[in-house]
Amino acid sequence: DTFLFWSAKDAASGASGGKQRQVELKGSARDVSDILDTITAACMQLCEMIDKEEHQRKLMGLGSDDGEDGSSVGQASSSSTAGGADKKGFVGWIANKVTRTNSGGADNNGAAAEEAGEDGATNVIPEGVEYWKQPDYDGWMQSQGDHIKTWRRRWFVLKDGYLFRFLNDKVLPQSKPRGVINLSQCLDVSKPTKDSNQGATIQVTVQRKGAQVNLLLVADSKAERDLWLEIMKRAKEDISAGKEKAKRDKAKAEREREEKAKQKSAEEYLKSLKSFEEEANRSKKKVEARQERRPSAPSQHSAVHQPHQYVAEQPPSVQSWQPPPPPPQQQPPQQQQSNWKVCYTPDGSVYYYNTITGVTQWEAP
User: Fold this and answer.
1) Spatial separation of the C-alpha atoms in residues 218 and 178, rounded to whole Å
2) Which residue ranges does the chain devote to CATH 2.30.29.30?
3) What DSSP state is assigned to residue 277?
4) Dihedral of CA 15/17/22/28: which sign?
């Protein structure tokens, strides 16, 4: 196999745009692959150093283009990398490509996208998880990438079911994780089936793009590995139990809401029914009161108190003698009409009844 790289910078003038130079290395496929992995890893480490310097400048309040002495970042980076692209042209070229690739994805995923190729468990950083204080557990471990098989020592923080990876143990609120493993989405957390060369290894199995991917983490010792393994398993179980409890609580809350709704509907129905009955009773009482106050027509069989109209029966023998008629009393003017009768209610009130039309009224006709 052949390994090629180019340098487009003029070594004499130090300016870009010079004549391209091609360097060709030939060797076995294994050697070429090892060289490529080594150079790529070196370039990524170089990018980390550049990003760290830029981060320090931001913390100090300096601009992204100026250093402490007004020099550009490119000059500072060139001096901090032992000569930069002048002495390591192909490294600078590859570092430039890697930096552009990382900066292009940083707008979407931030620092997580910067090492998206380092391990396959890099997810979106969860919101609301305060990983910088009171972690469930934290410590040093090494992680291996999917594409670049190099081990890197990183500071891991376990908080609320998420395993965060940082560059060092100085975790602050403004620190951004370099990777996140969501234990709730992991299929399994266990020891690897085959003994790893690194020794105390933890295998995290996740589902990605329809396939199972095994992520490897290496602790400093087997005792530390066992402790990490137990804590991660417990965290995963707690997440599962929390999800089941949340489902049960949600179902219980829905049942309670339905029962309360039914009970409220029944209470409203009973209340409306009671209100209807009360209104009906009030209406009935009003009708009865009006009927009691309204005079009724005199019954044909009832005796009407009409003074001076009673004629006693006399025996035939004394019919020839008639007592003198009583003196006329003052009568209401309505009584002069033959079709009106004066009647009295049980309480003594006077009302008038027309025997022809059947009309009953209080006022005199």
Assistant:
1) 17
2) 137-241
3) H
4) positive
pLDDT tens-place string over residues 167-213: 899 999 988 888 888 888 888 888 887 655 557 888 888 888 888 88
Q: Where in the chain is the domain with CATH 2.20.70.10?
A: 334-365
Q: Say which amino acid occupies 310.
A: Y
Note every long-range contact of 24-28, with CB atoms under 8 Å and residues 24 or more positions apart, other chains counting: 26/1, 26/2, 27/1, 27/3, 28/1
d(CA 214, CA 199): 16
Nearest to 183 by CA among 165, 214, 161, 212: 161
Angle between helices 29-59 and 73-80 (to 10 degrees): 130
CATH number for the segment(s) 137-241: 2.30.29.30
Give the whole-angstrom CA distance, residue 6 versus residue 89: 8
CATH code 3.90.550.10 for 334-365: no
Give the CB-side neighbour count of residue 343, counting CA atoms within 13 A. Answer: 24
**Which residues, including other chains, have CB under 8 Å from residue 14's CB and lie 6 or more apart?**
86
How does pLDDT run across 248-305, given as a tens digit for each residue?
A: 888 888 888 888 888 888 888 888 888 888 888 888 887 777 766 655 555 554 444 4
Q: What is the distance between the alpha carbons of residues 245 and 259, in angstroms, rounded to a whole number?
A: 21
Q: What is the C-alpha to C-alpha distance for residues 211 and 1, in angstroms, rounded to an integer?
A: 31
Give me 119's structure tokens.
């391990």
Q: How far is CA 137 from CA 2, 55, 128, 215, 351, in A?
A: 47, 26, 18, 19, 103
Whole-angstrom distance, CA of residue 174 vs CA of residue 167 = 13
DSSP string, 231-245: HHHHHHHHHHHHHHH
pTM over 0.85: no
31 phi and psi angles, rounded to 5 deg: -65, -45
